[in-house]
Design brief:
By secondary structure, the protein is mostly helical. Helix content is about 55%, strand content about 0%.
Length: about 160
């Protein structure tokens, strides 16, 4: 998706964000990580990972754009995301890319709290259904181009 915009996000910053964005989740207990329904306090603990990843990226020096990406990757265009509840224009493009990729991966792979993954087609449909609310529309358009050109829908 980034390549379709002539790498509007520096590839090293985006790559670092991919690796770092959920790294702070390792500090959480298995009880919280594997729980199917979280209470408010447990969800607040999970939401802290964005700020923790941000601090880790800033400590690495030279990863300022990565820091912004990991901090904002759970923000949503409609303002219902976290940690700040900012809307579309305030969210950096790297976070918009990462949010789609992160959701696609989560939907198409098994996790301890979700025993069965969705099909590729179902995941694509869900991302498109959430365009403009959870995912930024221009980036969903680019995601769809990738799906069509790379034949992701037929790859699995």
């Amino acid at each position: 998706m980034n390549a379709l915009t002539n790498n509007v996000i520096h590839i090293d910053q985006l790559e670092a964000a991919v690796y770092l964005h959920d790294f702070p989740m390792v500090r959480l207990s298995d009880e919280i990580l594997y729980k199917k329904k979280l209470d408010k306090y447990e969800f607040e603990q999970i939401k802290e990972h964005t700020a923790q990843a941000y601090e880790m990226a800033l400590a690495a020096k030279g990863l300022e754009a990565c820091a912004q990406i990991v901090y904002q990757h759970h923000e949503r265009p409609d303002g219902s995301g976290y940690p700040e509840g900012i809307e579309d224009a305030g969210i950096c493009d790297g976070a918009k890319i990462l949010s789609i990729c992160d959701a696609f991966h989560a939907m198409t792979h098994n996790t301890p709290y979700k025993a069965r993954h969705r099909s590729i087609i179902r995941a694509i449909a869900e991302i498109n259904a959430c365009r403009g609310t959870q995912f930024a529309s221009p980036w969903v358009d680019r995601f769809n181009i990738i799906v069509r050109t790379q034949r992701l829908a037929k790859a699995f």
